[in-house]
Amino acid sequence: MLSQMKIHILMKNTNKFILLFFLLFAMSFISCENEPVDPDFLVEVPSSCDKPSLFTVSSFINGNSVRIDWDKTSGEAWEIQYGIAGFTLGTGTSVNFTISSNTISGLVEGNAYEFYIRTKCSDNTYSAWVGPVAPGSISSECNSPTEVTAVRSQNDTSVATVAWLFDGTESTWQVEYGAAGFTIGTGISLFTYSPSATVNNLIENVSYDFYVRSNCGSTQSSNWVGPINIAAIGAPSTDSFSALVNGLTFVVSSTNPLNVNPNALHNGVSSINIIASDDNNNQIDINIDNDVVVGTAYFNTDPLTDKFRFIYFEPVPIEFQTDTNGSITIIERTATRIKGTFYFSAINPSQPLELRNITEGSFDVAIP
Q1: For residues 276 and 289, what is the distance between their CA atoms, to the nearest angstrom?
Q2: Following CA atoms 44, 33, 87, 222 in sequence, which dihedral angle do they give, to the nearest 10 degrees?
């Protein structure tokens, strides 16, 4: 009798254990999509994942729903988080959206809500949050910086200046940099209240990538712009020169390399002279004053005051000189390298109607 009682108790306890196990197992599969999210899982890591734009939240529909709309070109999956106005990101309710999603229900019309959205590019990669947006309103745009440049100092190669333009009301920016090829979020970040930043302690023989984005509030940033590369000092030559001459590719001769003279003169001003030749002995000759400003586009206005001079040669010899349709922009300039873009038209002095249109020109050369 005692043995039977022991067996009965053992079976009863075993059944309870099995029941408890299945309950816990089943609970692990219950969706928590609309439950508050642990803030630790919502820490934003800077990334190149594009944030959504044109984020709008409709007024209440039937007293308990809102329609969510946004520009769906930033990805294929998004996360919406919402809560009572003023809530902290990570403590709200999170909902996963796809391209076909557009409604959030179960709201209380008398409550003041705020909504945020971000692009989900992978399981661990998200864009910056966009928001907050209240029902019946649209997010304000946070514009990305433009014309970003990064230049090593000519006097101290451990220092670089990063600069950019902006076209909105942005007043703070974030710069992130690291060795060329680094992943955004793993580099060194700095913040600035002006559209430029000075970076120190760079290593001379290391190439660096730079990214910049605008900050428009504690929860809103623009997309990253970059990478903008600074070459290592003393790195193997990667000189390049290209252009189209009347639509045909100008190919630099393999037996007649680029000629760069850092001690040239142009209108009596110290300049850099770059001469490129092709296999037919055609030449593009460029003189660039040493006081040109990086990022500035210069145009032909007066041969006596222009900051540059172009000449195109064809053998005979015939010298094709520039007319007033030329322009040059220096993209990067250090003590050891110059990089830029250009275009111009050249005329035959003896036959003014004979033109050579040099377009899509670019150069990236070491300064000896």
Answers
A1: 18
A2: 30
Both tokens of 243, joined, read 């252009």
234 — phi, psi (to 5°)?
85, 10
**32, exposed or middle or buried, with CB in 10 Å at 0-12, 13-18, 19+?**
exposed
- What is the Cα–Cα distance from 299 to 328, expressed in whole angstroms? 7
Using alpha carbons, list the distances in angstroms from residue 33 to 80, 81, 83, 138, 240: 11, 11, 14, 25, 53
3-class state of residue 9 by DSSP:
helix
Residues 6+ apart with CB under 8 A from 65: 103, 104, 105, 106, 107
Q: SS3 for 245-308, per residue?
A: ECCEEECCCCCCCCEEEEEEEECCEEEEEEEEECCCCCEEEEEEECCCCCCCEEECCCCCCCCE
The share of the chain scoring above pLDDT 90, in percent, equals: 24
pLDDT tens digits, one per residue of 78-129: 999 999 988 888 899 999 998 887 888 999 888 899 999 989 888 888 888 8
Residue 81's closest CA among 121, 37, 111? 37
DSSP 139-174: PPP-PPPEEEEEEE-SS-TT-EEEEEE--SS--EEE
- CA–CA separation, 274 vs 140, rounded Å? 47
Mean pLDDT of the chain: 80
pLDDT of residue 48: 61
**Residue length of the chain:** 368
pTM of the model: 0.41
Distance CA 316, CA 265 (A): 26
pLDDT digits (tens, 9 = 90+) for 155-180: 888 999 999 988 767 788 999 999 98
Identify which of 243, 238, 316, 237 has the alpha carbon closest to the alpha carbon of residue 275.
Answer: 243
The one-character DSSP state at 200 is -
Q: CA-CA distances (angstroms) from residue 104 to 39, 151, 221?
A: 21, 48, 25
162-166 long-range contacts (CB < 8 A, ≥24 apart) are 162/196, 162/197, 162/198, 162/199, 162/210, 162/212, 162/228, 163/195, 163/196, 163/197, 163/294, 163/295, 164/195, 164/196, 164/212, 164/225, 165/195, 166/195, 166/214
